[in-house]
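Summary of Year 1 activities. Much of the first year was spent building the evaluation harness for sequence design. The harness presents a backbone, in tokenized form, and records the residue chosen at every position. We chose the following record to illustrate the format because it has been used consistently in internal testing since the harness was completed.
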């Protein structure tokens, strides 16, 4: 996601190109769509069966954003029928027409995006893939992480290995038929670092249980066999010393309660199982590392300050200078002896970690930061030892020592390391805070066959399994993802969506684990547990973002060779994006004598089978004419057919029913009376949508449906215009309504009556014209366009969004978050540039001075300890500059937006 997020960063003035022209260079190399007229529907039909398939191995993809980049680039080529990129197995499957494009062009296109591609000629046996995560202790710099990454990549069976220095983790995709995770751990440890397995797979849940009771090898085998026989159990690991069972299982087949029940029923109930107490994992290691560096720095300072004083200060103070120059043995002075004594523990005790790191690096043929530190400090220390030793054994030799250089260099490096690990600790705070949202306890309900509550039991929330019914009392956190089966309440979802206003929940509504129930009792059925829950998915996304290496790092490697593209065009969907997405029927006009109740029964019978928002609005309105609004009874609809972007057709009560827009009626050769035309025009003028109803091919009614604009939509579009960002609206609605909405919010360019695939085509047309396009939609029917765009932003999507389709997911329904995303991306990219200035500035200025470039003319030399301080300051300044983003606040102009209520009369 990082690449697309950052690609928003360089939005600039349309006027900078003169006349509003946009940059002719898009985010990816020029990739035209089908030439106009090249593939008409008839020609495409004729070419059916002539397409070819190709499989490419793609090296370098690190996350879903990378896969999306490759997929978008390939799909923009002429003659591409379909392209699917599998980031898990580093594969791209492409269906194409050879008369328009060949495999070499496709391969070059993938490489132009920044990844290495190879055509796989024949691969009959797909490799099985497993994923594991390993925590790595002892890495100090990018050289360390690269060393571990190279060692893992060299292991046979490893398909891809990523090592993240910030999180001190490695994610490895490997073939379990070739290599085991034990061998991966061994490879890391052979590289000189400590390795701890944290996760053995992505699609499974894993729990660790402690077994209490008198057990022996026979009972241990019995428990293991019983667990392995349970459906869904994939792996059982036993640690007999700790009485610990580690069990991997599939959540759709079993759960922790079943596992505990099996254990406790073995050997006639001799054993009791419970969750193994956690030691804190990565967070506790991080805190311990911070403490170690803090202690090391303090002790180093205690020894180094006297060394500095005797070397740099006391020599200028009368009396103290004479004391320091007092001879001890031959030419050896008191000051030299003090400095030697104090610098030695700093060099070999406090600096021991650098010796270990250097040894491990050199043993594997690499040089890291520890090697540089040891080279510098050892040169200063051992030359000083030689000098003072010779002074102690000679009555004439006057020594010159550099003990203060080695001691101060180590102290400054330790200070820099301490500040770095302190800053890196912030990266795990987000995950820790997310995990804290999970409640510790849950109330499990037992139901009879009729669905009545028989009993309830409080239990550990980690024991929840799929299809459990959970009771949520007022003030309690929702214990699991699921849907309401009984009760009404308001749930505060701000911790997930950021929306402060509580959301009403009743039977059938979905709830998210970790949110807070406010004022009513709810019974929910658990649908997603463990790793499948929304909270776990968000945690996984955060971890993936921390693990992934953004393409901006390649940008750093090529410093200023290529720049991130300029977005100067944003395409907005109308329904659910500019509008609330909750349309309601506001007017009905019948053109034939009919009972209104019977009219809506016919219409609702057809529309109830459609998922379109307008259809749902009609069905909801029709319920008002039913005796039982909660459980309405609609007539049976036969031969139902949905015409995408137009309407529906069905046979209801032996009558042919057609419900849809004007173009559908014209296609069906249904006459539209003048009064119906007038009502349509009036409806469209009010920014409402007109729906026509025909029975037995005769128009009988017109419905007016209103989908109110979102609060402050006009202001948001105005702000975007002031930011020199051009806005375009695309919708499947009619031209009259679309133009009315566009005029109200201030959009000049409108594309109406567009089907989902047409939206994607329009995006491609804009890209082919030289634009770099951001698409803002609801993430469901806009998925093709979201994928096609350079930056796809799904707004108001909640947990039902197809995340793969969008590059940025805006959890709230506020349109102004689009502006926030753009502004934050600009701020982020400016910090990256500023970090370049800091890092390059220190090196471009400091290295020549340290090398003595000023010495011939000014006789000035940079002492090594000052160079060390500058090196530490370089790292600290970059880290602090990045951490300032924690203080980011959205643009003040958004705080002044008037939040208006939406009232439908």
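For this record, the design step produced the sequence shown next.
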């Amino acid at each position: 996601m990082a690449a697309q997020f950052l690609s928003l960063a360089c939005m600039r003035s349309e006027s900078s190109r003169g006349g509003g022209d946009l940059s002719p260079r898009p985010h990816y190399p020029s990739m035209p769509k089908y030439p106009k007229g090249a593939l008409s529907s008839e020609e495409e039909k004729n070419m059916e069966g002539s397409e070819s398939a190709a499989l490419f191995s793609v090296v370098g993809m690190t996350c879903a954003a990378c896969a999306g980049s490759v997929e978008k680039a390939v799909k923009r080529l002429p003659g591409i029928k379909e392209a699917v990129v599998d980031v898990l197995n580093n594969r791209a499957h492409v269906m194409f027409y050879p008369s328009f494009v060949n495999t070499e062009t496709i391969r070059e296109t993938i490489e132009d995006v920044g990844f290495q591609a190879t055509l796989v000629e024949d691969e009959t046996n797909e490799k099985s893939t497993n994923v594991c995560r390993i925590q790595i202790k002892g890495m100090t710099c990018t050289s360390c992480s690269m060393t571990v990454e190279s060692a893992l990549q060299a292991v046979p069976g490893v398909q891809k290995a990523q090592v993240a220095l910030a999180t001190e983790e490695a994610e490895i995709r490997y073939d379990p038929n070739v290599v085991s995770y034990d061998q991966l751990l061994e490879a890391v440890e052979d590289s000189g670092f400590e390795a701890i397995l944290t996760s053995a797979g992505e699609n499974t849940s894993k729990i660790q249980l402690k077994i209490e009771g008198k057990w022996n090898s026979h009972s241990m085998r019995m428990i293991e066999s019983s667990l392995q026989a349970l459906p869904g159990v994939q792996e059982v690991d036993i640690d007999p010393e700790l009485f610990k069972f580690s069990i991997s299982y599939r959540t759709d087949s079993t759960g922790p309660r079943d596992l505990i029940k099996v254990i406790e029923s073995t050997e006639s109930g001799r054993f009791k199982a419970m969750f193994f107490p956690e030691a804190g994992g990565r967070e506790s290691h991080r805190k311990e590392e911070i403490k170690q560096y803090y202690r090391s720095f303090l002790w180093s300072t205690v020894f180094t300050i006297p060394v500095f004083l005797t070397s740099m200060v006391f020599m200028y103070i009368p009396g103290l200078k004479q004391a320091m120059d007092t001879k001890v043995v031959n030419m050896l002075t008191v000051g030299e002896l003090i400095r030697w004594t104090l610098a030695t523990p700093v060099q070999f005790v406090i600096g021991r970690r650098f010796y270990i790191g250097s040894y491990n690096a050199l043993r594997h043929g690499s040089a890291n930061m520890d090697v540089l530190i040891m080279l510098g400090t050892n040169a200063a220390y051992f030359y000083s030892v030689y000098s003072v030793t010779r002074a102690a054994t000679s009555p004439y030799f006057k020594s010159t020592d550099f003990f203060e250089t080695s001691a101060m260099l180590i102290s400054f490096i330790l200070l820099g390391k301490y500040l770095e690990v302190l800053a890196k600790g912030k990266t795990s705070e987000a995950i820790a805070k997310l995990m804290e949202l999970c409640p510790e306890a849950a109330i499990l309900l037992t139901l009879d066959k009729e669905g009545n509550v028989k009993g309830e039991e409080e239990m550990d929330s980690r024991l929840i399994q799929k299809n459990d019914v959970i009771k949520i009392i007022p003030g309690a956190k929702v214990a699991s993802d699921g849907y309401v089966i009984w009760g009404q309440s308001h749930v505060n979802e701000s911790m997930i969506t950021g929306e402060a206003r509580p959301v009403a929940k009743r039977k059938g509504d979905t709830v998210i684990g970790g949110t807070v129930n406010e004022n009513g009792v709810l019974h929910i059925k658990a649908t997603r547990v463990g790793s499948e829950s929304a909270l776990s998915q968000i945690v996984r996304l955060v971890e993936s973002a921390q693990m992934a290496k953004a393409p901006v790092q390649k940008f750093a490697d090529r410093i200023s060779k290529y720049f991130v593209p300029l977005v100067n065009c944003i395409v907005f969907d109308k329904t659910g994006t500019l509008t609330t997405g909750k349309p309601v029927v506001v007017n009905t006009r019948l053109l034939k004598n009919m009972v209104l109740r019977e009219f809506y029964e016919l219409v609702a019978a057809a529309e109830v089978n459609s998922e379109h928002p307008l259809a749902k609005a009609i069905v909801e309105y029709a319920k008002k004419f039913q005796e039982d609004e909660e459980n309405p009874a609609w007539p049976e609809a036969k031969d139902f057919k949905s015409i995408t972007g137009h309407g529906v057709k069905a046979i209801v009560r032996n009558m042919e029913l057609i419900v849809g827009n004007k173009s559908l009626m014209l296609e069906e050769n249904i006459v539209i009376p003048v009064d119906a035309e007038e009502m349509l025009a009036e409806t469209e003028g009010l920014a409402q949508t007109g729906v026509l109803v025909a029975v037995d091919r005769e128009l009988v009614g017109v419905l007016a449906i209103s989908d109110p604009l979102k609060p402050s939509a006009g202001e948001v579009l105005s702000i975007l215009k002031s930011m020199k960002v051009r806005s375009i609206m695309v919708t499947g609605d009619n031209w009259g309504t679309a133009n009315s909405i566009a005029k109200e919010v201030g959009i000049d360019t409108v594309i109406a009556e567009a089907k989902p695939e047409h939206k994607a085509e329009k995006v491609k047309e804009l890209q082919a014209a030289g634009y770099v396009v951001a698409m803002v939609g609801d993430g469901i029917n806009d998925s093709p366009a979201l994928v096609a765009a350079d930056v796809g932003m799904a707004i108001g999507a909640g947990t039902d969004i197809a995340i793969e389709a969008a590059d940025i997911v805006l959890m709230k329904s506020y349109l102004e978050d689009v502006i926030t995303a753009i502004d934050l991306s600009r701020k982020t990219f400016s910090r990256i540039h500023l970090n370049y200035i800091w890092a390059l500035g220190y090196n471009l200025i400091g290295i020549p001075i340290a090398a003595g470039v000023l010495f011939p003319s000014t006789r000035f030399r940079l002492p090594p300890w000052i160079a060390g301080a500058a090196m530490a300051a370089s790292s600290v300044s970059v880290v602090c500059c990045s951490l300032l983003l924690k203080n980011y606040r959205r643009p003040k102009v958004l705080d002044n937006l008037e939040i208006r209520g939406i009232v439908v009369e």
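The chain has 31 helices and 35 strands. Quantitative recovery figures across the full test set are reported in Table 2.
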